[in-house]
Amino acid sequence: MNRLERYIALQLLRPVVGVFFIVLVIVLAFYFSRYLADAVVERLSLQAVAQLATLKVSLFFDVLIPGAIFLGIIVGLGRLQGGYEITAMAAAGVGRQSVVRAVLMIALAGLVLVGLLTHVFRPWAYENLYRMEGEMAAQIDLDRVEPGRFEIGDEQWMIFAERRDGEALINVLVHQRLPTYRNLLRAERLEQRSRDDGTIALDFLGNVRFYRLEQGGDADLVNRSETLTVVLDPPPPVERNRIRRALPFSRLIRAAGALEWGELQWRTMMPLSSVVLAFAALALARINPRKGQASKLVAASVVVALYFSVLGTLADRVDSEAIAIWPGLFWLPLVMMPLLALKLWHQWRGPGAPL
User: CA-to-CA distance for 9 and 105, rounded, in angstroms?
Assistant: First the structure.
């Protein structure tokens, strides 16, 4: 790559990076505010909120990077045309190959980076995200209970405690709401422990009073004892539709179901999208320097949004087996690439500027 091609690549790379970070900040702010709202209820630390938001945003990199490459190349080429640098290159005898090579270098760098993200980082990130969300969704966590306030564990549990003694709660009132009845428990002490089978047990100790209020008109139940143990239901297993995202490539290949093939195709299509969208940017980047590129940017934003919407729709169809696994998600590049090649041939078939 000669000096001119490096210059072109640098002028294209700057807006690519700029677009990426602008969108990144917007998405990060959205998820940070969302998890901050959950933190008020779940008693999450700011560190946990930051970890969840960062993990969630990083999982969008496989979409953000190809999208930033597309929009950034259009902006960069638009600037070069607006400054008549492309025209000057053509007048100096520089052919289209220099522009194409610069675009191709950025596209290949995006392909490698997104490939690493989808096949290495994505499973690790989803595994940690599901683990943290599972801990947040725990039915009851006594560590979150603040003495003197009513705390909601989930849609079933509400807890009040006068004070705390280490990890235990003192003088507690616990309300459990179920579809057909309500439970009310009072005790001098409440402790939480994990059982060998992975479930959680609540030990009510000292002057335990238990009331069951039936909703259907049956006789209520009242009991009093010195100890009472309540075993919480185990958390439901992670759905197959979600757990596939945390599986490494080798396990996805062995599973070989429609959902797994859909995930494999997504991890393959995202890197390829860097190349497809880079050449789409080449085909759409030509502007009239006197008119600017505002309208071109609006059209480009619509194109990239439509591209990922169609890709997401195809992924859903593959998952539900509404379309064949092959070509599956690859329908989109198989249709787009010939159309892009035809448009580029039409633009480049005669003499003129490199674009």
Answer: 8
Residue whose structure tokens are 């564990």: 153
Same domain, 174 and 56: no
CA distance 88 to 79: 13
Q: Partners of 181 in the beta sheet?
A: 214
Question: 146 with 128, same domain?
Answer: no
pLDDT at 315: 83
Question: Rounded to a whole number, what is the distance in angstroms from the first to the last CA of the chain?
Answer: 19
Is the CB of residue 44 less than 8 Å from the CB of residue 141? no
User: Which of 81, 102, 8, 74 minimizes the C-alpha distance to 303?
Assistant: 74
Lowest-confidence pick of 126-130, 273-277, 295-299: 295-299
**Residue 222 CB coordination number (10 Å):** 11
d(CA 336, CA 303): 12
Q: Would residue 198 be called left, alpha or beta, if left means φ above 0 and alpha means ψ between -120 and 50 degrees?
A: left
Q: How far apart are CA 68 and CA 191, in angstroms?
A: 52
With respect to residue 87, please indicate whether it lies within any of the assigned structural domains: yes
Burial of 235 (0-12, 13-18, 19+ CB in 10 A): middle
For residue 265, being part of any structural domain is answered with no
**DSSP track, 67-88:** HHHHHHHHHHHHHHHHTTHHHH
Task: Return d(Cα 245, Cα 121) in angstroms, integer.
Answer: 11
Cβ burial, residue 18 (10 Å; 0-12/13-18/19+)? middle
Q: Residue 276 — very low, low, confident or very high, per pLDDT cuts 50/70/90?
A: very high
Distances (CA, A) of 152 to 145, 183, 290: 9, 15, 62
Asked if 139 and 153 count as a contact pair (C-beta separation under 8 A), the reply is yes
2: tokens are 């000669």
CA distance 89 to 85: 6
> What's the rounded Cα separation, in Å, for the pair 269 and 262?
10
| Residues of the domain holding 42 | 3-136+276-348
Contact by Cβ (8 Å): 227, 203: yes
The residues, ordered by sequence, that sit 6+ positions from 37 with a Cβ below 8 Å of its Cβ are none
